[in-house]
Amino acid sequence: MKVIPFILGLTLMLSLAFSQSEQRDTETDKRLKPCLLVIDIQKEYLPYIPEREKELGLQMINAAIHLFREQGFPIVRVYNTDPQWGPAPDSDGFQFPESVPIQDDDPMVIKNYPSSFKKTDLEKILREKECNTLFLCGLSAVGCVLATYYGGKDLDFNVFMIKNAIMSHNSDYTRSVQEIFDTVSYTAMKVMVEYVAPQE
Predict the structure, then answer these.
(1) Computed from CA positions of residues 120, 126, 132, 137, in that sequence, does the dihedral angle turn out positive or negative?
(2) Distance of CA 86 to CAs 44, 76, 111, 150, 176, Å?
(3) With contact defined as beta carbons under 8 Å apart, do 166 and 139 qualify?
(4) Least confident of 24-28, 98-102, 181-185
(5) Which of 53, 74, 129, 151 could make an S-S bridge to 115, C-beta 3.0–4.6 Å?
(6) Is residue 24 domain-shared with residue 105, that is, in the same domain?
(7) Are residues 77 and 10 in the same domain?
(8) Poorest-confidence range of 49-63, 78-92, 135-149, 186-200?
(9) How big, in percent rounded to 5, are the helix, strand and coil portions of the chain?
(10) Under DSSP, is residue 55 helix (H, G, I), strand (E, B) or coil?
(11) What is the CA radius of gyration of the chain?
């Protein structure tokens, strides 16, 4: 008869251990896993951006790239083109400025629509890297960045724009987007990213 209480006790202990393990797994799944998306800062489009906004925007984008590089999180570079009107992928206008420290092994997405997710492999790249939180920078604040913001939300990613790292042809429009949508300062992003940085 002593066997029955022992089996019941063992079953209860195993059940509790499994429950705690499940809870830990759920908590792990909620851990922030960030990725930086650098969107459409191509030479073809940068002349449309007001000079002061462009200068600040590129500085902030470079700072964000440096932060993600330093903390070991992925950076995805997104390029826009139109099959009929270009810029052609092999043209100088298609490229990012040389001052932006992208690397050949940063995943590259080429899109033909405003959203970086539409008919591209961006979602596949992000899922493979197990990213759940996206920080957006680049242009245009009222076009492709905004479309990508909504595209990411629709796919259940956490999505933030980086303040002063998004640009558009009209600085007033850029400010409005930053006030209306989920925008984080560089300092706030830095705290978030450093808090969850991979441990060596």
Answers:
(1) negative
(2) 9, 21, 11, 24, 29
(3) yes
(4) 24-28
(5) 151
(6) no
(7) no
(8) 186-200
(9) 45, 20, 35
(10) helix
(11) 21
Report residue 38 CA to chain centroid gap: 8
Let me know: does 110 contact 79? Beta carbons within 8 Å. yes
Residue 165 inside a domain? The answer is yes
Beta bridge partners of 108: 77
- Which domain, by its residues, includes 6? 1-30
- Please check whether residue 200 lies inside any domain of the structure: no
- Length of the chain equals 200
| Residue whose C-alpha is closest to residue 64's, from 102, 108, 96 | 102
Average pLDDT score, the chain:
89
Asked whether the beta carbons of 49 and 139 are under 8 A apart, the reply is yes
175 & 76 share domain: yes
Residues 120 and 169 in one domain: yes
Same domain, 124 and 142: yes
**Which are the contacts of 132, defined by CB distance < 8 A and separation ≥ 6?**
32, 33, 157, 158
Provide the CB-side half-sphere exposure for 140 (13 A, CA): 17
